[in-house]
């Protein structure tokens, strides 16, 4: 099982030239766990954050991501088209609450299980000392809504 934290910071290479064109900075996904793409720190004189659609990714290995072409980078999507972990619509660090109002913990990361185009679950922190003594918790994927620092998960589905 791989978390996004394992992928963050990996270099991105253009497959045809072998040129390093950036690094993975964030993941962009829907509230139902479908990965739409990645946010990357693009290399170059005027390096900036750009969006890399999932369709442009050819391979994701333990130490790098391979893409077809550096021209695949696009402007960042609008904030109403998805969520990220750390960016403008970042949900990492937000309180996770079940539909019945039960507090589950803080969202720390997301899991990928074999397919990196799909989020399989969430890594939940219950606080520093709890994480040290019991470890972080893994929660199965559930549709969510995110508003004002709270991630409301629908655990009934």
UniProtKB/TrEMBL annotation:
Superkingdom assignment: Bacteria
Pfam families documented for this protein: PRC
SUPFAM superfamilies: PRC-barrel domain
Gene that specifies this protein: yrrD
Signal sequence coordinates: none
Coiled-coil ranges from the UniProt annotation: none
Domain PRC-barrel: 4-70, 92-155
Stored Gene3D superfamilies: PRC-barrel domain
Annotated protein name in UniProt: PRC-barrel domain-containing protein
